[in-house]
Amino acid sequence: MRLVLVGPPGAGKGTQAQYIASNLSIPKISTGDIFRANVSGGTELGKLAKEYMDRGDLVPDEVTIAMVRDRLSESDAQDGFLLDGFPRNVPQAEILKKMLEEFGVALDIVLELVVDDEEVVRRLAGRRTCSQCGRIWHVDFDDKKDDICDACGGRLYQRDDDKEETIRHRLEVYQEQTAPLVSFYAQERILVGVDATGPVEEVTQRAMEALSPYTD
Ligand SMILES: [Zn+2]
């Protein structure tokens, strides 16, 4: 199965990507992993990407696309894959479609993890990080009333990334980019939405049920 996973920050996309890919016995291909592999492997594309990153610039689309193409050409991706983090927008989705056409294949499904904005804010803004051991606690899920780490006694703090303002901004950026992507795939008739609220295992279960009509 060839599948793309989309979902807002805080939807648990990375975790679900791993579980779903492993259940389907296909490689999980995330742009983060591809970047790291190219940079640490010292490939031409990796060197190019690193130049941009060292300057603090965004890596251009062409470089990312070339890396994705290389990765999808590898032998383990021939019978299927789960893409996480790509495509991010409609132009990238169109490029991916053409790329797969050249390979003589097509996407089977785009799975969208659906979580309400308020739930994302609750999940992320409740996180407290230990300044000493780095462990993350949650004010609701771990019923954390004080700001002391139960593991090491260190002081807990809220990372800037976990501040409500930052989260709401990331959600806005996500909606702007992803709403058109989701409509694109809805028009292609390969979009399936899955409720991503609740425990991780339940979400995986729902995702597998949603995918079952498309597996052999
Ligand atoms: Zn600690």
How is this structure best described in words?
Helices cover 49% and strands 15% of the residues. The protein has 8 helices and 8 strands. A hairpin with a 5-residue loop joins strand 5 and strand 6. Helix 2 packs across helix 4 and helix 6 packs across helix 7. It starts with a strand and ends in a 5-residue tail after the last helix. The mean pLDDT is 94. It binds zinc ion. The site of zinc ion has 8 residues, from loops. Catalyzes the reversible transfer of the terminal phosphate group between ATP and AMP. Plays an important role in cellular energy homeostasis and in adenine nucleotide metabolism. It comes from Streptosporangium algeriense.
Ligand names: zinc ion
Q: Please provide the ordered H/E string of secondary-structure elements.
A: EHEHHHEHEHEEEHEH
Q: Distance between termini?
A: 9 Å
Unreliable residue runs: none
Task: Please state roughly what percent of the residues sit in beta strands, choosing from under 5%, 5-15%, 15-25%, 25-35%, 35-45% or over 45%.
Answer: 5-15%
Q: What's the alpha carbon Rg, rounded to whole Å? A: 19 Å
**Oligomeric category:** single chain
Counting DSSP E segments of at least 2 residues, the number of strands comes to 8
* Overall residue-averaged pLDDT value: 94
Question: Percent helix among the residues?
Answer: 40-55%
Strand order, sheet with most strands: 2-3-1-4-8
Estimate the global geometry from the Cα principal axes. globular
The biggest beta sheet is recorded as: 5 strands, parallel
**Which structural category do the helix and sheet elements fall into?**
alpha/beta
Q: Helical stretch count?
A: 8
Main location: cytoplasm
GO molecular function, one term: AMP kinase activity
Function: Catalyzes the reversible transfer of the terminal phosphate group between ATP and AMP. Plays an important role in cellular energy homeostasis and in adenine nucleotide metabolism.
Catalytic activity: AMP + ATP = 2 ADP
